[in-house]
């Protein structure tokens, strides 16, 4: 049986408000990242769906290192395991 994982994480990214649009564009261009909301104050809600925890931490680092990002923090992280063999059979 081949078990695989999917890591679902949500982040709040605090951005300098004047640069909200450009930072959102950069985040949206990242693989496995989706923006689910933002505010005029510069807060962005990002959801990641990745294969392992390493991708989660790498993506957080990449976002946090974008110019005009003030801070990035993990709000939620869930690990789902599934049998990839049963999906191939269906």
Automatic annotation (TrEMBL):
Gene Ontology CC: cytoplasm
Keyword Chaperone appears in the UniProt entry: yes
UniProt KW ATP-binding keyword: no
Subcellular location(s) of the protein: Cytoplasm
InterPro entries registered for this protein in UniProt: Chaperone_NapD_NO3_reduct
GO BP term (any one): negative regulation of protein transport
Superkingdom of this protein's organism: Bacteria
Alphabetic keyword roster: Chaperone, Cytoplasm
GO MF term list: signal sequence binding
Principal location class: cytoplasm
Family: Belongs to the NapD family.
General function of this protein: Chaperone for NapA, the catalytic subunit of the periplasmic nitrate reductase. It binds directly and specifically to the twin-arginine signal peptide of NapA, preventing premature interaction with the Tat translocase and premature export.
Assembly information from the UniProt record: Interacts with the cytoplasmic NapA precursor.
Official protein name in the record: Chaperone NapD
Lineage: Bacteria, Pseudomonadati, Pseudomonadota, Gammaproteobacteria, Vibrionales
């Amino acid at each position: 049986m081949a078990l695989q994982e999917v890591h679902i994480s949500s982040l709040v990214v605090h951005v300098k408000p004047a640069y909200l649009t450009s930072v959102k564009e950069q985040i949206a261009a990242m693989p496995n990242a989706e923006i689910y909301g933002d505010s005029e104050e510069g807060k962005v809600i990002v959801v990641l769906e990745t294969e392992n925890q390493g991708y989660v931490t790498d993506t957080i680092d990449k976002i946090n290192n974008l110019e005009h990002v003030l801070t990035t923090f993990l709000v939620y992280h869930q690990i789902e395991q599934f049998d990839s063999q049963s999906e191939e059979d269906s």
